[in-house]
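Hi there. Long-time user, first ticket. I'm pasting a complex I've been working with (about 702 residues overall). I'd like to know whether the download I got is complete or cut off, because the file seemed smaller than I expected. Thanks.
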Amino acid sequence: MRATCWMGTRHIEVDHVPDPKILSAGDAIVKITSTAICGSDLHLYNGFIPSMKRGDVMGHEFMGEVVEVGKGVQNLRAGDRVVVPFPIACGHCSQCEREMYSLCENSNPNAWMAEKLWGYSPCGIYGYSHMLGGYAGGQAEYARVPFADVNPLKVPDSLDDEQVLFLSDIFPTGYMAAEACGIQPGDTIAVFGCGPVGQFAIKSAYMLGAERVIAIDRFPYRLRIARERAGADTINYEECDIFDALEEMTGGRGPDHCIDCVGLEGHAPGMHGAYDKMKTVMMLETDRPVALRQAILACRSGGTVSVAGVYGGFIDKFPMGAVVNRSLTIKSGQTHVQRYMRPLLKRIQNGEIDPRFVITHRMNLSDAAEGYDMFSNKEDDCLKIVMKP
Amino acid sequence: MAYNDFRVRSTEPLALALGWFSIVLGAVEIAAPSRLARLVGADDTESTRSTLRAFGAREIAAGIAILSQPDRARWLWSRVGGDALDLAWLGRAMTRESSETDRLGMAATAVAGVTALDVIAAQRLGREKQPSRRNDTAPVRVEQVVTINRSVEELYRFWRDFGNFPHFMRHIKHIEVLDNRRSHWTAKAPAGMSVHWDAEIVQDHEGEWIAWRSLPGSQVEHYGSVRFVAAPGARGTEVRVQMEYKPPAGRVGRVIAMLFGEEPEQQIREDLRRFKALMETGEIPLSDGPGLWRAAQPAKRAEQIRSYAGVSE
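Hi, the file is complete. Here it is re-exported in full:
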């Protein structure tokens, strides 16, 4: 089959690799009908996540048709149309029983690597480094889905692929980040980063009762989508100071809660951005937490800073003083997608949201390398790429 | 094995000191060759100065090599070679009439002293780097714990059947249960070989703990025990495993040492992780790219993945 392979930093190739096979009784094989490039794939593309190996199959946002199931699978059969959540969960460990699926204790066969970096290991993730399981990803024609009874969500034929594909990651990710804020009537939420997750965080914050969402980015086309399709007020941080603008827009209180949808490759103008850029280049820091620092400083005292953006390692100049002295709450986590798929599917069916609003590009899987390049460089007003094998 | 780590590191401080000595001496030789030449009693000529500068470059290179790999004997041997050159040069200088032989003699004595240290450090590092020697008789002793979301009784029952061990213990190929207490163990060894021994259960407290040991006269001396304790607040069961392998001297000992490699703790930890997955989910999750051995791509043959993962059906 054809698959999108990581061949090194900023080097993607679509190659022929063997078709996946059932390895365990609980596996299913899915013939992929739609797959997407995630913003977090760019961290792999740009070489920020350790333990990638040349030839690794990328992709953790995918859906398709079940073509084969292992002999232990009860809930699925060939022909079912499913969306596959990006965190692999076993469904039986203590964390899965608590619905903390991305903390599954059994799904990362390479847990020892993650333990070295993070103390304990989270779940395995498709196509997201060996440290997170070394699973072949879903930017391919087929994928093996472990624990198939627990993970894939069957979707009705009345909805097309593009309406449900993002249940695999970015819609639940934006939603969980907004939910973590515990939004009350009248709240103003600041969303840092208007990539696809940021857009869903804006929409979700409104769904959960926010009075106003202020979205922050530096690309006019992304701010335009946030304004026109997600209903946010916007700040271009290259044109003004984020802190001052947020203070001014919130009557001097600061936003009630802030959501970081940027992660470890943040940009900032001037010295602040240059500092982290230099430190990461010199390998003195692994992540560039510029958005996180700004979110902490800007947040109203007693508010929540919800972190949906991916961080991988260690950060510098973390403003802990602001967190302690202003009673801020920091919430984070890889998304427990399985917890949100069904309720969010219902919201799509009810017409509360049409997830297609983030799609800007559609292409064939064979053009994945171009897609990564375009998405990474924000060319051609690229926000979200959906690929068909 | 903390014991072996300690021995590996014991020569490193000396090696590091010699590395820094190289760099400082090299810097002086390059920066102030005239003063150094006068200090050791040699003629301060252009040829002396260029020789000392060349020696300085050599010292700095050796110093950097040692500091970056203080566990490699090779770099210390390169210093011994350098010492020989130094001594030869000092000897030649003594034959010149204009030289101060007293000072040259003192310099040669100092170099000879450093040479002795270099030889000692290089030899000791060389010995420590041969794992077969250091592991021959050192026992492999491991203790690991894991919490499993299953009842004490269920876990005890599965463990009590030693025939189940190969499902999650990667280094065990087969265990034949001979009777209620005794079992015959076959462990995997490199190059398709195997090691055998008989073991008996010496403690068996239902729902609490099991202990076993190899029978006297076995090729391998092995002890093991497992305890099951209910974790607080319905958090499952804490499973604590202790194991010890005492390899005999000689070839079999080396094979046993290789079974566990450099990190026996990690191996037993992985065994317990597989045990947990098996008990909680009924299967052991399989990566498409186990470890960092192969790319995360589907394998041509499914068995490849299973054998990498050490899983038997």
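A couple of notes from our side: Chain B has eleven helices and seven strands. The longest strand of chain B covers residues 194-205.
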